[in-house]
Amino acid sequence: MKFQKEDICKVKLIIWDLDETFWKGTLSDNGKDSTVIPIEEHIQLVKLLSYRGIINTICSKNDAQCAETELKRQKIADFFVFNSINWAPKGGRIKQLIADMALREANALFIDDNPSNLAEAEFMCPTLMVATPDIIPFLLSCVDSLGKDDTGLTRLNQYKILEKKRKDANIFSSNEEFLKNSGIKICFLTNLQKETDRIVELITRSNQLNFTKKRITKQELTDLLSDKEVNAGAVMVADNYGVYGLVGFYAVRNSILEHFLFSCRTMGMGIEQYVYAYLGYPTLTVVPPVSGSVSKDKGMPDYIRQVDSFEETQKKNTNSYEKILLKGPCDLQVMASYIEKSGCEITSEFNFFDQDGNQADFYNHSLNLLNSLMFPEQKWKALCDQYPFLSPKAYDTTLFSGKYDVICLSPLMDATLAVYTDGNGFRLPFGLHDKPLTSSCYWEEYIHKSVMTARCHFDLKSLENFSRQFKTSSFSAKEIAENYAYIIDAVLRKNAKTRFVLLLLSELPFHYANHSPYLFLSGKEQIHREINHTLRNTFQGKDYVYLLDVNQYIKSQADYFDNINHYSKLVYYKMAKEFIAYVNSLGGAKISSTNYLQVIWGHLKRTIYKRFFLRLR
Description:
Structural class: alpha/beta
Number of domains: 3
Strand order of the largest sheet: 5-4-1-6-7
Helix content: 25-40%
Shape: elongated
Number of helices: 20
CATH architecture of the largest domain: 3-Layer(aba) Sandwich
CATH topology of the largest domain: Rossmann fold
Number of strands: 24
Radius of gyration: 30 Å
């Protein structure tokens, strides 16, 4: 539907094309070196619209990463939500993003310089308003009359929360599972004299979840609330993502619902069904269209909890990132030594020595993490009874408990250890990749510990049995990335708000002396590069994963200790500082680093040892 200027009052959402609409030029024509020309008036319009409660989004045929980089360069990226930037046809994408935002097509305006795109959008969304960029000066001239004052960007922030919820919901196998993990709480207000302005606004603006469609003035509402025969109340809602405020209103007279309406921000949460059940299923005459339904048969949703107030919820949200798990081998363990907790709970699960003196280097390998999740513990205990070099406690982990807000993991052992398979789906990470346990020519070296054995104890019988049961298996960077994606997905199914930090691996070659016991690690930087590249591609655009890149701190041999897996004290300290900055940016309890002078002193002592003692070996 072509936009008419008299329809301006209906606009709640503006969908922007980018090339030759929001800016001058075509981004994809310029490769990595963007030469599009920002249009300052358009940048200001988006900001002004946001300050009036009008939401802005993007539907563009472009490379998403390049477009987002350009939007950040123009310092306007944060004013857009639910962006759809790819090369697919626009009509279906626009229909989907309007649905995801729980808005009506009739309240959205799509601006594009291409008539074909406008026609396609109209075909898919018949009530959508469409216009060419010629309409932008008119929007600028009347922006002050649109919406209402929202200088705090409350409405924009509400849609950012909704966008985050939509992304998190995709992690779960069903919407019901997501809702059960969202921590939805509801609070009823019956003293409404101070809430009349908000309730009148809600009655006036609500359409999709306004079941009776009755509109009343503020005076009529005041009279209604004073009527002793009327049971009226307002609905407040909160969940793990935030407090939504007053989002619903009902008024019951003689067991008949005269008013029953909710903000579209609660759409899909089951709030209207909960309130309907809470009121005892009164008579309700629905005036369509309504983007929801209620019935006595559905009962009361059991995933919603009623509370007296949201003070506890607000306090919890303020300290929402206070439980941290540091789980990994030596790179993470040394980094962790420079982290000091303050008002938060930090749990560590590092590689360990078992009661027999075996070091479980494979404890934090991604395959072992998946084995602990997928295979019964009895199977593992049986293997440990058969092979004395395996540790019974290697399956002990709290990783998948769902109780952590931030989890830090490292793929260092994935890049280091050999992998074996029993041919029945079970894969075991263990030992040196260049001297497999299945090759009898290396058995004497393992038994007499003339090679690196991680202090594990071997005997001829167990090695013979092992070679009969297991064979060596390939293990690619692609599999490593897929494993971490699966691990992260499994955690998010328990706690959708968990954030992850993955430590990337060093890519600078280490120069080994001829007598170094770590010669078997020569050339390992190539494996590290491949793993890093695959992890970056796998988690690109995933805001719940933060990649901590050690390579920005490793610039020379002085930044290593004795091999490519071991860094200088200063490098670990800088890694810790970056991790701390990321966690603190999430909000909640603050963590800090140890004293810098202590780090320098430790670094100097280690440097002296490296130069004068390691060289003499």
